[in-house]
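Support request, please re-run this one:
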Amino acid sequence: MKSISTAVAIITLSSTCALAQTPRVIGTSDSWSAWKVYENKTAVCYVHSDASSKKPEHLDHGRVSLFIRRLNRGKVRTEASLQVGYEFAPTAIRIAVDGRRFTMIPRGNYAWLRRTEREAEFARALEKGRMAIVEATSRRGNKTTYSFPLKGFPAVMKKARQGCR
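Re-run finished. Output below.
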């Protein structure tokens, strides 16, 4: 069931979901997985994990997932995104990787890095880091915190690079 819902989330994140085929797993390691899908006959890979902790615990956060989309063309080679089961407040979302800070901008229940020129830096931080901590605010004003252990991320990111050259 988790694989099916991850595949649906990947298709949803795809910019051309009407032309996308069903994603397939190309690697897993710890809580991370790498997926490959074809968009307009071009292979696109995603690295994905669900949050290991969601706080405050009494709230219904829905599924909380961090994605890194591997791009084959252009100056920017990765695209990070966050997906939650509720609407974000229209305020900046903070994500720290072992203390290194990044900012995401929300739209509905998705968020992306504010500055695309920091995408490579963010991906490198995930590969070298131990934990990513996300701090966000819901449209209702609830302050939330999510943890993503990074063990396994380097291995699946390598699979994504190899699978989508």
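Helices lie at 2-13, 119-128, 153-163. The chain has a mean pLDDT of 90.
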